[in-house]
Every structure is written in structure tokens, then in C-alpha cells.
Specification:
There is one protein chain. By secondary structure, the protein is of the alpha+beta class. The chain contains five helices and 21 strands. The strands form six sheets. Strands 1, 3, 5, 6, 8 and 9 form a six-stranded mixed β-sheet that branches. Strands 11-12-13-21 form a four-stranded antiparallel β-sheet. A three-stranded antiparallel β-sheet has the order 2-4-7, with no helix packed on it.
């Protein structure tokens, strides 16, 4: 083979290597992977029809030319584009999905899916089993309506207080507050009830127990069987709110509607016992550090008492007032 032919073959081989290298660089360039975890603040629970703003975040590379697409079937729009969107929750309670896609001309796309539960506190189909009754008041501070029942000369809220001026919703999820009420420290609870209402003290609790039991019932007892008398077989989107136990018979005497709103500890850093415990403050202190509360446990028909730190423990509140004299 002549020298010229060798040179031509060497040149052709070099060109093939260069072309292959360029093609490989192009392939690698079109298969770049985004850095960072794609996240969005989609709440786990929503109230039917409420307007929410959700935002995507977490992608650190690339920082420009990103396209965000949201698939929100059942919401006020089925799909939307944008890093941040405002949308209304479905009007129909149920389980819904939100899908988020982020794309870029030169990077592999990322996808994240979220599930959310839509609730309607005023619908028997969504918040079922509870007794709403005929008597109610409107909290002039925020316009919320509360049903109440009368027992032992006292009017009692038939649902837990949900005033947002203090306390926290369970797991900081506002939609759960619309069902379970908020959790308050004892210090917050003291001034949380609407004008004319108060946190029940030990004697108020005794009056409730006497109305149910038909006999004098001191505060410092386990109140055998009274938990079942006041507990409601409530459902949330057709799922039982109370964890199952053969030891609990849900009688809901008086329509007091005891539900398992759980509690918090560590200055609202930890939330626990939703579905298992209902916990309500008393206005009375045990000592300088602690105050009393009553609780119902899903696996017992009783309604015992305990005490906890006034500043760091979070419990529900049932507001009470003296009943108006009968005419």
C-alpha cells in the first residue's frame, strides 16, 4: 500500500473518531440530569372549594428555562403552568391527586405526585355521624358557627373550638382544624373562647358528668362508662375517625360529639394520638406548672382525667357558659 493511501486511511479514521466523539458529547448533553429534589407544598388535606397557592421548589441545577406543569384534575383547572399557581380545591369531598412536571430543553424531566384529601365540615357525607342540633352561636371574631348542647345548667360546645387567634391545627394542617378544632396550650386556652364563654373548670366538668350519669360525680375519678356515653361514631369521608375497639360503644348522649382530635407536646413540635385520644382542657390548675385535662381513649369506655404542663402540652377546648334560665 502506498504512503498516500495510508495517509488517506489515517485521515478518514481520525474523522470517524472525531465524529463519534461529537455524537457522544451530544448524547451526553441531551441526557443531563437536574440536581435537587422537586417538591411542592401541596397540603395533605383541603376544605372543599378553598383557594390555595402552591409553589414548586428544590431544583438547584439548571436555574433557568425551566417549565413547570401541574395536572390538577378535579380542581378549578385541570392543568396549569407556572412555578407558583393559585387554584381552588374540588367542591366534592374525596381523594385527589396533583402531579407536577418540570422540563428543560437539555435536561431529563422530573416528576412528583401528591395525594390530598378534600373535606367538607358541613356535609354529612364528609363529616358524618355527628349531631349538629338546633342551637348554635356565631363567634363574632371570625364568623365561625358553633353548635351547642345544654346539660346540667350549662351550654357546651358540641364541637371543638377552632379559633385561629391562638393554638395550632393538628400537624399545622388548617383543614384538619375545621374538623377536629385546634390544639391549645393551657395558657392560650384561657382566653381562646368567644365572649361570654369560658374553658370549663373542674366543677363544670362535674356538672356534665352528673347530667350524663344521673348522680354526683367528683372530678377526680375515672368516670367509668361516661366516655362511651359522650363519644360519637364519626366518619371522615366514610372512614371511621375513631380507631376500632370492641370495648367502645358510641352512644353520643346529649350530642356532645367527642372525637379523637389527639394532642401535641413540646410546644407544638410533636403531634400524636389523632384517631385514638380525645383530650380537653380544664381551667383548673394542679400546681404552678401543670393543669388538668380529661380524655377519652379509643380502647376504653371511661372518661378519666390527668394533668400536663400548662405551656408545652396542646389539647382541644370545649367552651362552656351558664345556660339562660328557662322562661
Amino acid at each position: 500500500m502506498t504512503v498516500n493511501k495510508w495517509l488517506r486511511l489515517a485521515s478518514l479514521f481520525a474523522m470517524l473518531i472525531l465524529a463519534f466523539a461529537c455524537k457522544k458529547d451530544e448524547e451526553e448533553d441531551t441526557n443531563l440530569y437536574m440536581k435537587g429534589a422537586l417538591v411542592a407544598n401541596v397540603p395533605s388535606h383541603l376544605i372543599a372549594g378553598e383557594e390555595i397557592t402552591i409553589k414548586a421548589s428544590g431544583i438547584t441545577t439548571p436555574t433557568d428555562s425551566l417549565t413547570y406543569k401541574w395536572i390538577t384534575t378535579g380542581f378549578s383547572a385541570d392543568s396549569l403552568f407556572g412555578h407558583e399557581i393559585t387554584i381552588s380545591a374540588p367542591e366534592e369531598p374525596g381523594n385527589y391527586a396533583v402531579a407536577l412536571y418540570v422540563t428543560h430543553p437539555r435536561y431529563v424531566s422530573k416528576t412528583q405526585n401528591y395525594n390530598t384529601i378534600v373535606l367538607d365540615p358541613n356535609s354529612d357525607d364528609s363529616f358524618g355521624g355527628v349531631v349538629r342540633g338546633d342551637d348554635s352561636i356565631v363567634d363574632q371574631r371570625d364568623g365561625k358557627k358553633y353548635y351547642y348542647v345544654t346539660a346540667g345548667g350549662l351550654d357546651w360546645f358540641a364541637f371543638n373550638l377552632n379559633w385561629k387567634g391562638a393554638g395550632k391545627a393538628y400537624m399545622l394542617i388548617d383543614a384538619l382544624g375545621e374538623i377536629y378544632g385546634r390544639l391549645y396550650s393551657w395558657e392560650e386556652a384561657k382566653s381562646a373562647c368567644p365572649d361570654g364563654w369560658r374553658v370549663p373548670d373542674n366543677s363544670d366538668w362535674e356538672s356534665l358528668a352528673a347530667a350524663v350519669a344521673g348522680a354526683n360525680t367528683p372530678f377526680d375519678g375515672k368516670w367509668s362508662g361516661l366516655g362511651a356515653e359522650l363519644t360519637v361514631r364519626a366518619t371522615l369521608n366514610s372512614i371511621n375517625m375513631w380507631k376500632y375497639s370492641p370495648n367502645m360503644n358510641f352512644k353520643n348522649m346529649l350530642g356532645w360529639n367527642a372525637i379523637p382530635s389527639g394532642n401535641s407536646t413540646g410546644n407544638f413540635r410533636t403531634y400524636l394520638n389523632r384517631g385514638e385520644y380525645g383530650v380537653w382542657w380544664s381551667a383548673d390548675e394542679k400546681d404552678a406548672n401543670d393543669a388538668y385535662y380529661r380524655y377519652i381513649y379509643f380502647d376504653s369506655p371511661d372518661f378519666p382525667y390527668n394533668y400536663a404542663n400548662k405551656g408545652s402540652f396542646g389539647a382541644a377546648v370545649r367552651c362552656v357558659r351558664d345556660s339562660a334560665p328557662e322562661k
